[in-house]
Amino acid sequence: MINSSRIDNIYKQSGRTCVLSSYAIVSHYFTRRLIQDIFSDYCKHFNLIEKSSLSDRYDKHFHDYITINNMRGYECINSLHLNSDLKTFAQGRDQFSIISYKDITENIDIIEPVLISDETLINISYYTGHGYHSVTVYCDAKDQFFKLRDTERVKLGISTNSLTEMIGLLTKSKGSFVADCNLYTRINILNG
Q1: Distance of CA 89 to the CA centre of its chain
Q2: Could you tell me which of 73, 40, 69 has the C-alpha nearest to residue 57?
Q3: For 2, which DSSP code?
Q4: 3-state SS assignment for residue 30
Q5: What is the signed CA dihedral for 19, 20, 22, 25, rounded to 10 degrees?
Q6: What tens digit of pLDDT does each residue of 46-102 get?
Q7: DSSP 95-159
Q8: Which of 99, 132, 149, 178 satisfies CB 3.0 to 4.6 Å to 183 for a cystine?
Q9: Are 154 and 10 in contact (CB under 8 A)?
Q10: Dist. CA 31–CA 93, nearest whole Å
Q11: In terms of C-beta density within 10 A (0-12 exposed, 13-18 middle, 19 or more buried), how is residue 94 classed?
């Protein structure tokens, strides 16, 4: 379960930056790194030096990059998390692990208990009927409700009794469906 007081509830994404924004919410929770630092390291990793804002540079590059490389958005973020030498990604690697699932609905019986028992957050990609969007979901240790953090909105948002119910809310619009997800769990290092 998650201490919801550690979830950033101020950051609001600009443009189509939900994939890295959702990752940044997770990384900030575990590492306390600023969300802007994660965007900065993304831009440094790909040598994006034009004078536009960090989010504009990411937005322009990211969607072209995943299309050219025929990859899903989370695959790009996972590669950075696992391979980039830049500080925010390296620190993230030291603090939390990633498990990817191509279909959350087929794995909900595995995922939900982990969200309840471990210090774990999940980013879920879903089709809204107009395009894909990424959000962060977690189980709050305080009240044991599943909560949504959507970086398109400033406040934390929806609470449900189960992950299944949360997915139902995300996909209630005609033509909506959930896609892949990333499960992020704190790495517990035992002192020997």
Answers
A1: 13
A2: 40
A3: B
A4: helix
A5: 180
A6: 999 877 899 999 999 999 999 999 999 999 999 999 999 999 999 999 999 999 999
A7: HEEEEEES-TGGGHHHHHHHHHHSSEEEEEEEE-SSSEEEEEEEEBTTT--EEEE-TTSSS---E
A8: 99
A9: yes
A10: 10
A11: exposed
Report if pTM > 0.85: yes
Q: Are 2 and 138 in contact (CB under 8 A)?
A: yes
Sequence-separated (6 or more) residues with CB below 8 Å from residue 99: 182, 183, 185
Which residues lie below 8 Å from residue 39, measured CB to CB, with a gap of 6+?
17, 20, 24, 54, 55, 58
Helices (H) and strands (E) in the chain, counts: 7, 6
Enter the tokens of residue 175. Answer: 């033509």
| Greatest CA separation for the chain | 53
